[in-house]
Design a protein that fits this description.
The protein has helices at 12-28, 44-50, 74-92, 105-114, 130-135, 163-166, 170-181, 200-208, 210-215, 250-256, 266-275, 290-301, 314-325, 328-340, 346-361, 379-390, and strands at 3-7, 33-38, 54-57, 96-99, 118-123, 142-144, 154-156, 189-193, 219-223, 241-244, 259-262, 279-281, 304-306. By secondary structure, the chain is an alpha/beta fold. The protein folds into 2 domains: 3-164 and 344-367, Rossmann fold (3-Layer(aba) Sandwich); 168-340, 3-Layer(aba) Sandwich (Rossmann fold). The strands form 2 sheets. The protein has a 7-stranded parallel sheet with strand order 3-2-1-4-5-6-7, with helices on both faces. The chain has a 6-stranded parallel sheet with strand order 10-9-8-11-12-13, sandwiched between helices. Helix 12 (290-301) links the parallel strand 12 (279-281) and strand 13. Helix 1 crosses helix 15 (346-361), helix 3 crosses helix 4 (105-114) and helix 8 (200-208) crosses helix 13 (314-325). The longest helix has 19 residues, at 74-92. The chain is elongated. The N and C termini lie far apart (53 Å).
């Protein structure tokens, strides 16, 4: 039996692509063994079991970014984590360890190397983290989500995303999705989302400009977030303004929308380009600037705008965003441009590589298990062209 250990704990940016790969591995081979590695500190303790996967916890080993006394304890803590990861690999009988970065991946890579197990590295961000910088030196099987990511042996494959989003046909699902949210089929829809926790600056700007949006016939589907949305007053009227705290069916939101206003996390950019939804990206105003780097290729291709968080205001929404939203031809062109950068088959392509390595580890010809259902190494390279065709003329401002 094929068996794979997936290390992708910590943040949603590591967990979501890891689980998208797990889902695709299970679709390709229902008998594949999958064990996820995590730590007690990460979201994986809640998310991974909820998705139906076995989770094994190892000690976290955060690496200090600056010299400090904590640095002295790293070797002993790392050794303990490597031993724990190695024990999981042995119990699982794993032939492949796949890492997505974060605290849990470094000990997983080192343990896999020690136990002579194949290592696969996936880096979603344009600036690789330390764990994947280490992992990429232990294997030739290195895959990246974005062009230009600098890692040894890197192959561009895209970022694995959920199948319901990867396979989404926005045009075919549009009317059904709009009916689900109580939106009209004949007016354009702006989707506003700041991620799972919401974004206060986006919420304030859009709500304050709501009268102008609605009077212009622009519907709003606003995912306000459980924290940022507290106490917000939502307008009512003939043109719908739908506000919800949280949504776990983002495929329906994407199908209902013509344009998005959102943050620029790697997963957000990957999902929007995969479905061909143009957007105004508002990178987080703090951190290392990575969110801006995620959105730059989309902006350069003409599939979106980048707006500084400090610039987001009711005036910007009225004077800039509304002009774009009401230009049907421009939105359709931006949709095609966004789709040209998408990698909707990234999970399938990565799954095919991982299962081929699992077959090698088991000493059998690649692909000798359950058929890979049209998965091929070249999928990622042709997905952008198919996405562009799928989303041609997708704006629905009727």
């Amino acid at each position: 039996m094929r068996s794979v250990v997936i290390a992708g704990g910590g943040s949603g940016g590591h967990i979501e692509p890891a689980l998208a790969l797990a889902d695709e591995l299970r679709r390709a081979d229902p008998h594949v063994g999958i064990v996820c590695l995590g730590t007690q500190r990460g979201l994986e303790t809640r998310v991974v079991p909820a998705r139906g996967y076995q989770l094994e916890l190892i000690p976290p080993v955060p690496l200090p970014r600056k010299p400090s006394k904590d640095l002295l304890s790293v070797p002993s803590r790392m050794a303990a984590a490597v031993r724990a990861a190695g024990a999981v690999i042995d119990r699982a009988g794993a032939g492949v360890v796949v890492g997505f970065g974060g605290y849990v991946s470094t000990p997983a890579y080192l343990a896999a190397r020690r136990h002579r197990v194949q290592v696969v590295v996936h880096e979603a961000n344009p600036r690789p983290g330390l764990a994947n910088q280490i992992g990429s030196r232990l294997t030739r099987h290195v895959f990246v989500g974005q062009a230009g990511t600098r890692l040894p042996h890197a192959t561009l494959i895209g970022i694995p995303i959920r199948n319901e989003i990867a396979s989404l046909d926005r045009l075919a699902m549009s009317d059904k999705a709009r009916a689900h949210f109580g939106l009209r089929p004949d007016l354009p829809v702006l989707l506003v989302t700041g991620g799972s926790q919401g974004a206060a600056s986006l919420n304030r700007a859009v709500l304050a400009s709501a009268p102008s949006l609605l009077s212009a016939g622009v519907q709003v589907l606003h995912i306000v977030g459980p924290k940022s949305g507290t106490g917000l007053s939502v307008p009512t009227g003939e043109v719908p303004y739908v506000a919800i705290e949280y949504l776990d069916r983002m495929d329906l939101a994407y199908a209902a929308a013509d344009f998005a206003l959102c943050r620029a996390g790697a997963m957000t950019c990957a999902e929007l380009t995969a479905v061909g939804l143009p957007a105004a990206y508002v990178p987080l105003p703090h951190g290392n600037g990575e969110q801006r780097l995620n959105a730059i290729p989309v902006e350069r291709a003409g599939g979106g705008l980048i707006v500084d968080d400090a610039v987001i205001s009711p005036e910007w929404v009225r004077n800039v965003l509304m002009r774009v939203l009401l230009d049907h031809d421009l939105v359709a062109s931006m949709s095609r441009a966004a789709a040209s950068l998408g990698h909707p088959n990234a999970a399938q392509a990565l799954s095919a590589r991982v299962l081929a390595l699992a077959d090698q580890a088991a000493g059998r010809p690649a692909g000798s298990g359950t058929p890979l259902s049209a998965q091929a190494a070249g999928m990622a390279g042709t997905s952008a062209a198919r996405g562009a065709n799928r989303h041609r003329g997708s704006h629905r401002g009727r």
